[in-house]
Every structure is written in structure tokens, then in C-alpha cells.
From TrEMBL:
GO cellular component: nucleus
Name of the gene: NEIL2
InterPro entries in alphabetical order: FPG_cat, H2TH_FPG, Ribosomal_uS13-like_H2TH
Protein name: Endonuclease 8-like 2
A single BP term in Gene Ontology: base-excision repair
Role played: Involved in base excision repair of DNA damaged by oxidation or by mutagenic agents. Has DNA glycosylase activity towards 5-hydroxyuracil and other oxidized derivatives of cytosine with a preference for mismatched double-stranded DNA (DNA bubbles). Has low or no DNA glycosylase activity towards thymine glycol, 2-hydroxyadenine, hypoxanthine and 8-oxoguanine. Has AP (apurinic/apyrimidinic) lyase activity and introduces nicks in the DNA strand. Cleaves the DNA backbone by beta-delta elimination to generate a single-strand break at the site of the removed base with both 3'- and 5'-phosphates.
Chief place of localization: nucleus
Record field: compositional bias (Basic and acidic residues): 107-118
Amino acid sequence: MPEGPSVKRFQLLTAPFVGQVVAKVGGSSRQRNLKDLKAMRLQDSQASGKNLFLAFGAALEAWTMGGSPSPGPVEEEPTIQGEADRGACSLTLSQEGQEDEVSQLSPKEHSVQRKQETECSVPDAADAAGGIWKWLRFHFGLFGSIRANEFSRANKANKRGDWKDPVPRLVLNFDSGGFLVFYNCRIHWCTSPAVEPASDILSPKFHRGQALAALRQPTSICYTLLDQRYFSGLGNIIKNEILYLARIHPLSQGSLLALSDLESLLDHAVQFSTDWLHKKLAGKGLHYQIYLKEKCPLGHEVMQGTFGPRDGFKRLSWWCPQCQPLQELLEQRRLQP
Ligand SMILES: [Zn+2]
């Protein structure tokens, strides 16, 4: 599923529409009361981890740049937000296919992820009746995406030879004449963005101390990295790549690793995610070091395994046994006379 940087890019696509009033609602979604969005004003757009949140309020409500009339949280993102204007234009015109991380998934990774998508299904959240703003949460499945001012076109014929364009889940036409199209995403009403910016790797409010404490738990490091409570927006690609960059075996116990190793892992997590986002905004792809690879950049044979907590999701890991030796093995070698 799209990881943090992809969802952040989606958010930047929606940002230019904030302040505009919805003139027409379309799409195949059966989510309740979506038609109510008509004549409401898009008030805010936030990416939090792997979720996109859009806030809608009464059109009569004054909308001022940077002002928030509701208790909805306002997250300031000076570095990333600076890219918004530059990024939005080119993104609007981009004709790219599926998200790059999706198209490069192996069949095995596909089936694992698809299973998780089903298992992850969240029941509908209650309608946001209490607030001035109504929040919609978008969760993107494997092929989820957003387009601005254009529809996605079929890039190949289906099995029967028909060229059928993808059916949008939701289409929002705005009074300006522009429109947003949402594909393959789950849409729910919610009260407000639920994820804490302190755990969002792409947020300036990301709390390193809290993340470090989580990494030091006596559990396999690759499980902690995918725990969205601590690393919101960090997905399987980022996990594999940063473990390789930090030279850490995915099954290393966090409590056995040196603090300097964990600090380095954290640095790579933030740096890799930020670089990925910037690449996306520039329309560039990502070159993987280890994810889906047979050899590491140094030419060593890469191992592959499916790991996860006993009662949690299992995800595929790629690692190089030479560049990323298991901590316990290192310890044993050190103790040997
Ligand atoms: Zn290697």
C-alpha cells in the first residue's frame, strides 16, 4: 500500500483545492452521506502516516489562509509545504500509472499485501456530528491514488480486450471548475485526524525520543519499524531499505543493539522518507538497494523471509547476511576464544 511519502504527495495534490466549495459529488463509493459534501467547503487537508484526511465545513464559514475555525489540528510543515506550490502543478499534469512502489511488487509481495488489505478492513467510523467540520479519512489500498483535474485512463485492455477506464471511488467537482478524483481507496467519516504527528516520520513534530524508546524494546526490530503507533507512514519498502542502509539484520532484538545503531536507523528512516517524497514531487522514481533485489549493491546474495509478530501481520523482508549480520551471531563470535 502507498507509504507515507506517497500519501503526502496525494495531500499536496489536494492542497490547492482547500478553500474551494464542492459543486458536484460523483463516484461509485457507497459510503454514507457523501452527497452531503455538495455545497460544503474543503477546509483542510492533512496527511498523517498512511492516511489522508480532508475536512469539510459550511460554505458560508469564512475561510482564511492558515486560519482554522474548528478544533481540528493544524500541522505546520515548513519544509515540505514549501514544495507544495512547485509540486502541485507538475503533479496535476502527470500521467503516471500506478504508484511506483506498487508496480514493482513481486507476485508474492502482492498476495501478502492483498491478504493484509482484507484483514485490515476497518468498520465505519461514526459520523462526525459534533464538530463544525466533517472529516473524511482516505485509506489507500494497493492501487489507491488521487488525480487532480484529470481522470485515470486505461493503460491496457482487460481480458476481454475492452479498454475500460478505472472507475473512480469519489469525484469532487469544485466551484472553480477543477476536480479531484479518488481511486481504489477506503473512505470513512471520522472525528479528526487520529494519528499523532509525534509518530509521523514525515512530520516536523516527529518525536525522536519516543521512537528511540520504541526501537529499544526487546523485540525484533523489523516488527517495531512497521508498528504504526511509533512509525506512522513507515511501510515495508522503507523498512527493508533503512535496515540495509543501517546494516542491521531485520530480526535483531532492539534491546541488544547499540544506541548508536538505533540512532543511525532513525536517521535513515527520516532521511530516506524525506528523500523519497522529494523524488516523488520531482516525478522521479526510487532506486532500491535491497527491496526485491537478488544481490546487494556489494554483490552479495540477498536473503528473503516472511517475518511478523505471532499475532500480527507477516511481511516480506530482504536482507544481506554479510552486510547485515544478526546481532547475536556477532556477539557469539566476539565471545569465542
Ligand atoms: Zn551485502
